[in-house]
Amino acid sequence: MSVNSRISGFHKLSVEERVLKVAEHAGIPSASLDTFIDSGNLPMDVADRMIENAIGTMPIPIGIATNMIVDGKDVLIPMASEESSVVAAVCNAARQCRASGGFTTSMTGSLMIAQIQLVDCPDPFSARIKILEQRDQIKEICNEADPVLIKLGGGFSDVEVRVIDSKDGPMVITHIIIDTRDAMGANTVNTMAEKLAPFIAQWTGGRTYLRILSNLADQRIARARATWRLEDLGGESVRDAMMQAYYFAETDPYRATTHNKGIMNGISAVVLATGNDTRAVESGAHAYAARSGRYTSLTTWEVDKEGSLVGSIEVPMPVGLVGGATKIHPVAQTNLEILGTKSATDLARTIAAVGLAQNFAAMRALATEGIQKGHMGLHAKNIVAMAGGIKEEIDIVAEILVKAGTVRVDVAEKELAKLRGQ
Ligand code: NAD
């Protein structure tokens, strides 16, 4: 069934009505969405198998970002986040670029890198060549470790060897580059690196230590771009203020870190919602942002011939549809169904688009009314709850605080006392 992600007034519906809408729009039987309403939806036996010493679970809200068009298709985006305004930001940015076609995405491929560290080589440069001479055997050793992956068209892609200058002298670092298809691939490539290490020691006479993937997944780059027309984004002054925000982030690491944190608000929320490894994606993104030697923006913003604002993003995106928690967590499975992604590459591309949308919304808010105004609605409710408000008190007092422009716990306490007739 075709999806239309433009669901007007979605935020005004009750939770139950929203779940039914998502089921209807994504063509998923509502039964599989019952799991969302149950906020304790991770069975304890599953949780106990996922990590060590499990004592419980900690639910995080999942919101649906509407309005996204990715590569010509409407997509509903499940986002898991504890932070208010993150979902609304994506909805707004996506709505404002629907007229110009939404997001166009692409990807380099699903290649992961594993590293093998070799030390105690008196002749590191000749050791490097000796390893490279064994390319065919390296391919065989890697591929033998994962016949399932080979059947799926993945496996060994290349080998690279570098000599690095460490505090302890030269080290020979081998990179095996593996196509992990629909898996994130950490376990896959780690197994291969461990199998290969003794051979590297034998071929070179050195000693191997670390054998593990690199989270700088720079051969697994997802890309997205989108155009916001002047009339949709609010005119020239808004556009120019946003460009100033971008130049600031591009130049100054203090600003770039916060700029990229905003991007990761979107990215990590989808990574988490699909049971993927947020830390793997986050570490890779930040390292990639510093690849020139200076930490900078993950996005680029320009003005095209028509005066429209054009944004693009390139970010490592090691996410999977199999492996890790993706297949085990029932909610991750339903979220993947909502997204309708058929491959890890599809998922990665959509996530990059969400990162770009988030960045647009944050820059627009910062460059115009400031970030706090948009934050205040939900933030005020949290403040009233912190002040001891319950049930309908929360909405009533939150509205008073927002209207007065003083969203503070002490004011919330006073208003609660007034409401309760104390
Ligand atoms: P995995 O080992 O659970 O599953 C991957 C395996 O599934 C493949 O090796 C393959 O044999 C099989 N498979 C079946 N269908 C497949 C398909 N369509 N495409 C590809 N493979 C398919 O998982 P993984 O992806 O290797 O590892 C991910 C997990 O490793 C995550 O939970 C992550 O948190 C964790 N991890 C991360 C790091 C790190 O980022 N530094 C380190 C160690 C572990």
Q: Identify the bound ligands.
A: nicotinamide-adenine-dinucleotide
- Under CATH, the topology of the largest domain can be stated as 3-hydroxy-3-methylglutaryl-coenzyme A Reductase, Chain A, domain 2
- From the 3D coordinates, which CATH architecture of the largest domain would you assign? Alpha-Beta Complex
- In total, how many beta strands? 10
Number of helices: 17
Range of helix content: 40-55%
The percentage of residues in β strands lies in: 15-25%
CATH homology superfamily name of the largest domain? 3-hydroxy-3-methylglutaryl-coenzyme A Reductase, Chain A, domain 2
Q: Over the alpha carbons, how many angstroms does the gyration radius reach? A: 24 Å
Morphology: globular
Q: What is the helix/strand order?
A: HHHEEHEEHHHEEHEEHHHHEEHHHHH
Structural class: alpha+beta
Mean of residue pLDDT values:
93
**Looking across the biggest beta sheet, what order are the strands in?**
3-8-10-9
Contiguous low-pLDDT stretches (5 residues minimum) are none
The biggest beta sheet reads:
4 strands, antiparallel
| CATH class category label of the largest domain | Alpha Beta
**Measured distance between first and last alpha carbons:** 55 Å
| Count of individual domains | 4
